[in-house]
Design brief:
Layout (H helix, E strand, L loop, with lengths): L12 E4 L5 H12 L3 E6 L11 E4 L5 H14 L5 E4 L14 H29 L2 E6 L3 H4 L5 H21 L4 E8 L12 H8 L10 H12 L10 E4 L8
C-alpha cells in the first residue's frame, strides 16, 4: 500500500455519529489524542469540547441534516476518511407491547441511519481510494435479550450491511468492520435499573462492565494502519458475554 493510500500516515478526517456522550464521546477523545481532525454529531445541540473537535447537530433519521453535517465537515477539514457510525437509541419493551412507532424509530435510527451516513461517506472515500468505516453494534444482536427485539434487529442488521459493503468497496482500499460492545458503563444502561444491570453483569465471564474508553480503543484499532488487512469482521468487546456466538 502506498503512503498516499495508507490510513494513519497523517492526520485524518474523522466523523463520529452520536459523539456527544458515552462510547461516541470516548471515540472522539481517542481520535483527537491520535492527532486526527475530528467532527461528531448529536441529535441535540452539542456542547463545546474545547479540544479542536467540531460538534454538529444532526439527526441521522433526516437525510437533509446528514448532508448538511458532511458538508460542514468537508468545508472545515476535508472529506471524511474515517466514519464511526455510533448513533443509536433504545425503546425497550416486550414485543407483545411494542408499538409500530417503537419498532420503526429504533430501526430508522440505528440501522437506516447507519446506511445513510455510510452511503454519504463512501461517495468521497471511493474517490480517495481509502477509508475506514466502523459500525457500532451490540452483543445484544447475537445473544438476544428480552425486550430488545427492535434493538437486536437493528444491531444485527449492521453486520449484514457491513459485510455486503465491505465486498463492494474493498478494491478501493476501504475497510468496513463492526465493533460489538457488551455491557458498557454509560447512561444508556441506567434505565435498566441496578437489579437488571447486576443480572446482566453476572452473564459476563470477566465479571464487570466495560468502560467507554475500552470500546473506543477497539474502534481506534480498526481505524488504524494495523488493521489494514481486516474487513467484514466483527470485533466483540463484551468481556466474553457472547462467547462462541
Amino acid at each position: 500500500m502506498s503512503e498516499e493510500e495508507a490510513p494513519g500516515s497523517g492526520p485524518r478526517v474523522v466523523l463520529v455519529t452520536g459523539g456527544s456522550r458515552g462510547i461516541g464521546a470516548a471515540c472522539v477523545s481517542w481520535f483527537v489524542a491520535n492527532g486526527d481532525h475530528v467532527a461528531y454529531t448529536s441529535r441535540s445541540e452539542p456542547s463545546d469540547r474545547d479540544d479542536g473537535s467540531l460538534g454538529l447537530r444532526c439527526d441521522v433519521t433526516d437525510p437533509a441534516q446528514i448532508e448538511s453535517a458532511f458538508s460542514a465537515v468537508e468545508e472545515r477539514f476535508g472529506p471524511v476518511e474515517v466514519l464511526v457510525s455510533n448513533a443509536g437509541i433504545t425503546r425497550d419493551t416486550l414485543i407483545a407491547r411494542m408499538g409500530e412507532d417503537a419498532w420503526a424509530e429504533v430501526i430508522d435510527t440505528n440501522l437506516t441511519g447507519s446506511y445513510r451516513v455510510a452511503r454519504r461517506a463512501v461517495a468521497k472515500m471511493l474517490r480517495l481510494h481509502r477509508g475506514r468505516i466502523i459500525f457500532v453494534s451490540s452483543v445484544g444482536a447475537f445473544i438476544g435479550l428480552p425486550g430488545q427485539a427492535n434493538y437486536a434487529a437493528s444491531k444485527a442488521g449492521l453486520l449484514g450491511m457491513a459485510r455486503a459493503l465491505a465486498r463492494e468497496v474493498a478494491s478501493r482500499s476501504i475497510t468496513v468492520n463492526v465493533v460489538a460492545p457488551g455491557l458498557v458503563a454509560t447512561d444508556m444502561i441506567e434505565p435498566l435499573g441496578a437489579e437488571r444491570i447486576d443480572q446482566m453483569r453476572a452473564m459476563v465471564p470477566l465479571g464487570r462492565t466495560a468502560t467507554a474508553e475500552e470500546i473506543a480503543d477497539a474502534v481506534g484499532f480498526l481505524a488504524s494502519s494495523g488493521a489494514g488487512y481486516i474487513t467484514g469482521a466483527v470485533l466483540p468487546v463484551d468481556g466474553g458475554m457472547g462467547m462462541g456466538l
